[in-house]
Here is the input.
Amino acid sequence: MTQRQILVCLDKFRGSASAVQACRWLAEGIRQAAPGLRVREAPVADGGEGTVAAFRAAGYRTVPVPVSGPTGEPVTAELAVLGTRAVVELAQASGLHLLPAGRAEPLAATTYGTGELLRAALDMGCREIVLAVGGSATTDGGAGVLRALGARLLDARGGELPPRGAALADLETVDLTGLDPRLRDTRLVLASDVDNPLLGPDGAAVVFAPQKGADAEQVAVLEAGLSRLARVLARQTGTDLSGRPGAGAAGGAGFAALVLGARREAGVAVLLAELGLDTALAEAALVVVGEGCLDAQSLRGKAPIGVAELARRAGVPVAAVAGRLEVPLAELARHGIDSAHSLTERAGSERIAMAETRRLLHETGAELAHRFG
Here is the structure.
């Protein structure tokens, strides 16, 4: 009979550990406390930062690609590739963490580099591409993506607009005739845990642009630009995609993906299918989920909750480990989580929890080993 295992499925602890590191450190604590226990590490992500690393852990190879960063500076991003399937992580090219000196540029930031990553995947012969969105610095409606793939954004005089959010208010025409023809034979998946539309009070500018440094006046400018982009494309194509779930993801990059024919799937669902967690759960005595902050937003389909609900359906107990725990255990229980552990509570302060994440994950792993081993 196969010995049952502890399955460690942690997302990143932002600012102190990647998903791969968090899983490794917790697993080290389990193994040191109970050397006879089988432990499998399966880092997860929900479509944002860390998605390529999670797919690498699932057996994909990574390919470095030089692209433009969110404000045009050169950066090196990575694709995850397996056969003719590729994963493009928007944050690798257009992420907040790539802004020079951390200076927010909500009006100027562009997704052009993400479009370059998509083009690189096509150049490699990939015909199934997952576009994982999240953690963006941008609110350009995916205009940069479209331009990098051959579209032209034109003003009333026929001049080409720069692919940034602030410029979209002057948009008159989007010429899609030059789009890369290989896209017609490519299956594109928009992987996102965000179901917001492009426009309005729940849209990309109003909800997310302030997180990217936009003040009220800049939010209004960005909303006007996104609205103009949606109207122009609806007029030209006969279809208005701005209200579709996920159109507002990553500052509207989700909208561009939908324009390109993408099918939206929850980011965590895409990864869990790739990891083959159904099989792993059949051998699991315990699943450990978690991320840096387990809060109300986590309950809206983010990676830890996606894994926990899958485990619940398989009848496997779940423990949550978080840097900060902001959801009552009773609420977590409704999502299949049986126990929860906060590194901040263990450390006595958030500062110590951030500085000593490895030690605290070791200690938490040892506690779990003694309890469930």
The radius of gyration is 21 Å. DSSP finds 15 helices and 13 strands in the chain.
